[in-house]
Each structure stands twice: as C-alpha cells, then as structure tokens.
C-alpha cells in the first residue's frame, strides 16, 4: 500500500510535473492562425470566401469563422464556425463544425501524408442531416501562406458528392 501511495504522490507532485517539457499538440496547425481570403468553386457556381483562425481558451483550441458567398442566381451565403482540438487519447485532431444550415458535424483526421502537407478529415457524426450522410474535408498545404480545401458531402443513395473546392491565401 505504501508503494502505491508513493507512486500516486509522485504522479501528482507539482515539482515533478514541471520537469517534463510541455507538448504543443496544435503546433502542426498553427500556420493557419490568421485571416485568409478564398476563391471558391462548387457544383452551384463560383465565389469568394473569408476565413479566420484564432487561438482561444489558453491557446488550447483553434476557433474557425468561415463565410463563403457562391455567385449563382440566388447568391448563396454559407457560414460556419468550428473548433479544432487535439484528442490526446486517440492521438488525432477533432473538428467540430456548426453551419448556418443547422448541421453540426464532428470530424476526425482520417489520414495525414508523410510530409504532413495533406490532411483528410472524415465525418464521425453529423447532427440534423439525413441518416447515413457523410462528409469529408481534404486540406492540401502548399506553403505557409496558401492551401487548398476540398469539402465533399454525400447523402445515402446519392451517386456523387456535393463538392466545394476553395483556394485560400493568407491576408497580408
């Protein structure tokens, strides 16, 4: 019993905890922090976008605000907010996205290229969407100031996915 107690004390000892370097799990995604301008192509037309990534809550999360305007006869405006976080237990990133269409989607990283310049997020859960809906976000990093994102959404029975491709450039 004394041995177990000593182990527990050492685990929760603040002095011992200070010896370990703090790991920044969001470091690979910090290049996103800032304001971005986008050129958008979708099945419904072309348009523009504005996106902001900011660190929030003691820099533990990345908050995303996104607005895309598709120039079609109705001039469609799509807005979403997201929170990007690290799931230490599963050793992955999680994106929780809230859209103006009332969808709430939880994504997890499905794959990362060896050079970490291609990330694929797949939907894990979608609220307020038809049953068996799926979506995927693919991010291709070109440089610290540009990336391409492909968003695909599919309902059950749909033969092809709705697709939006955006090319983002960091605003100076």
Describe the protein's architecture and organization.
There is one protein chain. With 172 residues, this protein is mostly beta strands. The N terminus is likely disordered. The protein has a 10-stranded antiparallel β-barrel with strand order 1-2-3-4-5-6-7-8-9-10. The protein has a single domain, classed as Beta Barrel (Lipocalin), CATH 2.40.128. Helix content is 9%, strand content 58%.
List keywords for this structure.
single chain, 172 residues, mainly beta, Lipocalin, ten-stranded antiparallel β-barrel, 2 helices
Architecture, CATH level 2? Beta Barrel
Tell me the span between the first and last alpha carbons. Answer: 61 Å
How many helices does DSSP assign?
Answer: 2
Number of strands: 10
Q: Which segments are poorly predicted (pLDDT under 50) over 5 or more consecutive residues? A: 1-17
- Which range does the strand content fall in? over 45%
Reading side by side through the largest sheet, how are the strands ordered?
Answer: 1-2-3-4-5-6-7-8-9-10
What structural class is derived from the secondary structure elements?
mainly beta
Q: Which superfamily, in CATH terms, is the homologous superfamily?
A: Calycin beta-barrel core domain
Q: Which shape, going by the Cα principal axes?
A: globular
Largest beta-sheet details: 10 strands, antiparallel, barrel
């Amino acid at each position: 019993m004394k041995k177990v107690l000593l182990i527990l004390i050492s685990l929760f000892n603040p002095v011992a905890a200070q010896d370990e370097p703090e790991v920044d799990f969001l470091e690979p995604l910090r290049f996103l922090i800032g304001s971005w301008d986008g050129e958008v192509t979708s099945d419904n037309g072309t348009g523009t976008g504005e996106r902001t990534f900011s660190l929030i809550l003691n820099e533990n999360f990345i908050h995303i605000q996104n607005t895309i305007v598709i120039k079609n006869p109705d001039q469609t405006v799509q807005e979403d907010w997201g929170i990007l976080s690290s799931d230490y237990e599963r050793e992955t990133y999680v994106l929780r996205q809230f859209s103006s269409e009332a969808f709430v989607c939880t994504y997890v990283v499905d794959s990362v290229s060896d050079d970490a310049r291609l990330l694929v997020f797949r939907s894990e859960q979608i609220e307020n969407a038809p049953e068996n809906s799926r979506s995927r976000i693919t991010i291709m990093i070109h440089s610290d100031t540009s990336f391409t994102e492909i968003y695909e959404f599919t309902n059950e029975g749909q033969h092809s996915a709705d697709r939006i491709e955006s090319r983002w450039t960091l605003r100076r």
